[in-house]
Specification:
This protein is an alpha+beta fold. It is built from five helices and five strands, in the order αββββααβαα. It has a five-stranded mixed β-sheet with strand order 1-2-5-3-4. The longest helix has 19 residues.
Length: about 160
């Protein structure tokens, strides 16, 4: 459990649990294949994202990003972490996404890419955090309640 310290000198040298190290001291988190992994979430969508050095190819559920996300706005959302970090065309991304719609899935992939990039290159964490890409957008659709037409809408009133 806890070790007992007998002097202030030992207290200064003792590691402090629960406090994050500064960006310069953070370790690069990569697996045996040299990839950084992260999970991104948005609405009901969950994205598992692997980032590795490469040519900038982004694959989503086995398909190219331009095929999977046909709308230019969704492709732009996915590219945002690379634009902020100025790493366009330097990393390959492999993502598997499930749940939600296409817009939520694009947001989940962006969240996952940003987290994986900050694990691969800890110096990028500040830029990602200041752009808001590391924060999970917790807004989800409110559930329908009984006695209501939707989540909050009431049924049409009729006097007779």
């Amino acid at each position: 459990m806890a070790t007992e310290l007998s002097s202030f000198a030992e207290l200064k040298k003792a590691p402090i649990a629960g406090i994050q190290a500064p960006a310069a001291e953070r370790q690069k988190e990569v697996d045996a294949q040299g990839r950084a992994y992260a999970t991104g979430r948005r609405k009901n969508a969950v994205a598992r994202v692997w980032v590795k050095p490469g040519t900038g190819k982004i694959t989503v559920n086995g398909r190219d990003q331009k095929v999977y996300f046909a709308r230019p706005t969704q492709q732009m959302v996915i590219q945002q972490p690379f634009d902020v970090s100025q790493r366009n065309g330097q990393f390959d991304v492999i993502a598997t996404v499930s749940g939600g719609g296409l817009s939520g899935q694009a947001g989940a992939v962006r969240h996952g890419i940003a987290q994986a990039l900050s694990k691969f290159e800890p110096a990028l964490r500040g830029a990602m955090k200041s752009s808001g890409f590391l924060t999970r957008d917790s807004r989800v659709v409110e559930r329908k309640k009984y006695g209501r037409a939707g989540a909050r809408r009431r049924f049409q009133f009729s006097k007779r």
